[in-house]
Design a protein that fits this description.
This protein is mainly α. It contains 15 helices and five strands. Helix 2 packs parallel to helix 10, helix 3 packs antiparallel against helix 4 and helix 6 crosses helix 9.
Length: 396
């Protein structure tokens, strides 16, 4: 049987080596992410009621479950040719053995996608199925082929860290314009797999597009570029982050104009999640006219950092505010000082005071007056540093 290397995504004949198998798997992930996952993610975040239902119920709505099943089946169908060629390369066995092993692998993969979305499956079984799929793919990626392994190693196929880090900017320097796909992909969930493909195929693209006397000269230049991109990567990451946030902000602003209730639904969703978080974090909550009492396990409090302790105070603040949205509490830098002045966090072990808040009334009157041009820095310091925290609570 003539087993030649066949690196195509859809071809069933021949064998495929580890490196090209990884590239095919990453390509499939990109296809699925762009066609299925990214549109689904956009839909969820532009429909807060759907997002709230998913978070509250811990499961996808029926239409999304079907979408995930279709996505999983499409992914398995695309995996099939590469898995057959990889198994054939590893085992060098007859077609019957290859088909049997591939069928078992596909059965496990399809089960991990379909069963949890159409019937109730014990969580442990669902995890076992997913981890089994993961180990199957890792095994196929890492196991040396009996056929492709006989070929000598090509120095051109080393991983190019410059292409991985610099992606499309690296591509412009090396006339590898395929890397420009990174620009639209950075707004999807497929950017990281594409970065890996750039790293795996970068040397091949760059060497073909420029004239080099020998491989040594090529690798030396690529090493220099890698150092440059490593130094520039924090700047590049920051710039891309700003661009992504800016683009996302424009999208949300335009979407809000055509969907007037969107921001209200987002606020309601955030408030609902904060309420649920408060109810699960605090063991007991008592809201009286003159004091808002929150009880927490002192072990949790004691292990929390200063910023986390303040966050727990602020969580109590948000909880009270959500219960009294019509009282017109003033907000200053994301907190409500009037609420915090009445908020106390106690130990549910012995009622020991763990956290409270104090600030002079003149600063409350100051921010109520809305005349914050003078002494604004001092007001900010006083109000944001009014937390009194117990760092050594008694433990049971």
């Amino acid at each position: 049987m003539n087993l030649y290397e066949n690196n195509s995504l859809l071809g069933f004949e021949g064998v495929i080596n580890r490196r090209n198998f990884i590239i095919n798997i990453l390509t499939i992930i990109i296809i699925i992410e762009v066609i299925f996952s990214t549109p689904a993610t956009c839909y969820i975040f532009t429909h807060p009621k759907v997002l709230s239902a998913i978070v509250s119920n811990g499961a996808l709505p029926q239409n999304f479950a079907m979408w995930m099943i279709i996505s999983g089946i499409a992914k398995c169908a695309l995996y099939l040719p590469s898995i057959i060629k990889r198994i054939r390369d590893i085992t060098d066995a007859s077609n019957k053995t290859v088909i049997f092993l591939c069928s078992v692998s596909m059965l496990v993969m399809l089960s991990s996608v379909i069963l949890p979305n159409i019937i109730y499956v014990i969580p442990a079984i669902a995890y076992i199925l997913r981890w089994t799929v993961f180990f199957i793919i890792i095994f196929l990626m890492c196991t040396k082929g009996r056929i492709s392994g006989l070929k000598p190693t090509d120095d051109l196929y080393k991983f190019n860290w410059g292409a991985f880090i610099g992606t499309w900017i690296w591509g412009l320097f090396n006339k590898s314009y395929k890397t420009l796909f990174m620009i639209p992909l950075c707004f999807t969930t497929a950017s990281f797999p594409f970065m890996l493909i750039c790293g795996l195929k970068g040397n091949k693209w760059a060497y073909k597009n420029k004239n080099y006397d020998n491989l040594g000269q090529f690798h030396k230049e690529q090493s220099k570029q890698t150092l440059i991109w490593c130094l520039l990567s924090p700047i590049l990451a920051f710039v891309m982050f700003i661009v992504t946030i800016f683009t996302f902000g424009i999208f949300i602003a335009n979407y809000s104009k055509t969907h007037p209730n969107y921001m209200t639904e987002i606020r309601n969703f955030a408030q609902t999640q904060q309420l649920q978080t408060a109810q699960t974090t605090f063991s007991k909550i008592e809201l009286a006219e003159n004091e808002y009492k929150f009880y927490i396990n002192p072990k949790i409090w004691g292990k929390s950092s200063s910023s986390r302790k303040k966050a727990l105070m602020n969580l109590a603040d948000v909880y009270v505010y959500s219960k009294n949205p019509d009282k017109g509490f003033i907000e200053y830098y994301g907190i409500h000082p009037e609420i915090l002045l009445k908020t106390k966090i106690y130990s549910d072990f012995n009622n020991e005071l763990l956290g409270e808040y104090f600030v002079d009334d003149k600063w409350i009157d100051y921010i109520k007056s809305k005349d914050t041009k003078n002494n604004s820095f001092e007001a900010k310091q006083q109000i944001l540093n009014g937390y009194k925290l117990n760092y050594h609570p008694s433990l049971p």
